[in-house]
């Protein structure tokens, strides 16, 4: 792939010897929806130079990811599996032993099915997208092909996962079964201290949208929601999950009301019934039902929403990267975030936004009010954010870096050797 961050051809060197012999890569997704990890996998699949990496995708069920991949001509197989690091909703603390027994009982059949897919598609390399599934790494080992693990989340201390093994054992298995390991941030790599020798940090990147007229975008969002044109919009965008800490965002909104009463606060995203009700009760408890609006999923282009916000807030307890930060920066919206990991590697304090201590609603409110009161400061930060996005966080840089990892991880093999291996 040869491209600059602006989309024009540049002087990236081609991969020697791969353009007539692409790495046939089996990409595995832990889920069929379109959350952050799947969004980044789709960004990768869309951008791959298929003379360098030829993709095949496996998903556990057909939803948005499979449809999007097939729309760009990628073959998709469906193979249900169980997560070796399950979500909390999948298993209770008391049920871990029973879950693990069921996981082990069905594991051989899943490995057999995946090994057959590897042979059928003459796969050179297996690529597991997220830490939550083990099948890809084991199948690659049995079929004697390299495995790349792209880890998007911590296991230890992650209040959304219910790990069934000790953290050190997860790390040992990941290290033993991986040729290369990709992390989206240095902060996430630090959660896996023993994996550094095989690790590479590749920041997420997006196909950057065109810069919007922000005043027009804000007016359209206000009209869509039936809000007065004088309202200023402060939003948090992301799934309704515990680690997103919407409670701090809501408390921040309460602090701002006493200082700046023209602000309306938008919570954009969906979650399960329990988490949605938890957020709704928090809004009611703080007497903010007319000020903090729980919108659910945004139906239009996310760039239009981001451009319509005066400030994007990230109130999370932990973020492996913080994709919404670059989505906002790309359309010149300033960002206020907690110091929750990934955003600290994306934002520059006082240049593209502000970083506040975890759960410090008062400090976050001060930063937001500063931006609401100084449109010129907000404009300058937004402009800097766009430039940083263009320079560092494009899909071109992201895809090229991962193509390079895949190319390095595949042992040299010519076409005749590959055909003999799978004949």
Structure commentary:
It is a single chain. The chain has 423 residues and is α/β, with parallel strands linked by helices. Helices cover 42% and strands 15% of the residues. It is built from 16 helices and 13 strands. The chain has helices at residues 36-47, 64-71, 96-120, 135-142, 167-176, 186-189, 214-225, 246-257, 273-285, 302-308, 323-330, 343-346, 361-373, 375-392, 395-409, 415-422, and strands spanning 23-29, 53-59, 75-78, 125-129, 147-150, 180-183, 199-201, 232-237, 263-268, 292-296, 311-314, 335-338, 353-356. Helix 7 (214-225) crosses helix 10.
Notable traits:
423 residues; alpha/beta; 7-stranded parallel β-sheet; 6-stranded parallel β-sheet; 42% helix; 15% strand; globular; disordered N terminus
Structure described in brief:
The protein is of the alpha/beta class and 423 residues long. 42% of the residues lie in helices and 15% in strands. It is built from 16 helices and 13 strands.
Helices and strands in order, then pairings?
Layout: E1 23-29, H1 36-47, E2 53-59, H2 64-71, E3 75-78, H3 96-120, E4 125-129, H4 135-142, E5 147-150, H5 167-176, E6 180-183, H6 186-189, E7 199-201, H7 214-225, E8 232-237, H8 246-257, E9 263-268, H9 273-285, E10 292-296, H10 302-308, E11 311-314, H11 323-330, E12 335-338, H12 343-346, E13 353-356, H13 361-373, H14 375-392, H15 395-409, H16 415-422
Parallel strand pairs: 1-2, 1-4, 2-3, 4-5, 5-6, 6-7, 8-9, 8-11, 9-10, 11-12, 12-13
Helix pairs in contact: 1-15, 3-4, 7-10, 8-13, 11-14
């Amino acid at each position: 792939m040869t491209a600059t961050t602006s989309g024009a051809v540049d002087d990236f060197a081609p991969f020697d010897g791969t353009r007539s012999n692409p790495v046939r890569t089996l990409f595995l997704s832990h889920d069929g929806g379109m959350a952050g990890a799947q969004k980044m996998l789709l960004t990768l699949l869309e951008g791959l130079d298929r003379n360098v990496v030829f993709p095949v995708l496996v998903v556990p069920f057909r939803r948005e990811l499979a449809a999007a991949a097939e729309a760009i001509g990628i073959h998709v197989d469906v193979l249900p599996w169980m997560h070796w690091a399950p979500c909390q909703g999948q298993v209770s603390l008391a049920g871990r032993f029973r879950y693990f027994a069921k996981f082990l009982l069905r594991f051989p059949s899943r490995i057999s099915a995946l090994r057959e897919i590897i042979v059928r598609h003459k796969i050179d390399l297996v690529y597991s997208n997220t830490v939550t599934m083990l099948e890809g790494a084991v199948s690659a080992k049995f079929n004697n092909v390299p495995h790349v693990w792209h880890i998007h989340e911590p296991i230890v201390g992650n209040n959304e996962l219910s790990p069934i093994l000790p953290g050190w054992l997860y790390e040992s298995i990941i290290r033993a079964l991986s040729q290369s390991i990709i992390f989206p941030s240095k902060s996430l790599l630090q959660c896996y201290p023993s994996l550094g020798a095989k690790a590479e940090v590749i920041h997420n990147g997006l196909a950057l949208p065109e810069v919007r007229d922000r005043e027009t975008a804000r007016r359209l969002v206000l009209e869509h929601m039936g809000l007065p044109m004088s309202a200023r919009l402060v939003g948090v965008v992301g799934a309704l999950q515990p680690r997103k800490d919407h409670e701090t965002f809501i408390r921040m909104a309460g602090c701002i009301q006493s200082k700046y009463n023209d602000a309306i606060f938008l919570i954009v995203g969906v979650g399960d019934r329990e988490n949605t009700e938890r957020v709704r009760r928090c809004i009611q408890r703080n007497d903010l039902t007319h000020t903090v609006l729980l919108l659910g999923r945004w139906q239009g282009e996310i760039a239009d929403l981001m451009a319509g916000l005066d400030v994007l807030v990230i109130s999370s307890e932990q973020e492996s990267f913080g994709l919404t930060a670059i989505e906002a920066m790309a359309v010149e919206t300033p960002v206020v975030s907690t110091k929750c990991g990934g955003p600290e590697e994306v934002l520059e304090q006082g240049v593209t936004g502000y970083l506040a201590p975890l759960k410090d609603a008062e400090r976050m409110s001060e930063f937001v009010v500063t931006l609401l009161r100084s449109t010129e400061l907000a404009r300058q930060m937004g402009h800097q954010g766009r430039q940083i996005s263009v320079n560092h966080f494009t899909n071109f840089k992201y895809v090229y870096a991962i193509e390079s990892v895949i190319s390095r991880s595949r042992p040299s093999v010519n076409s005749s050797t590959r055909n003999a291996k799978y004949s």
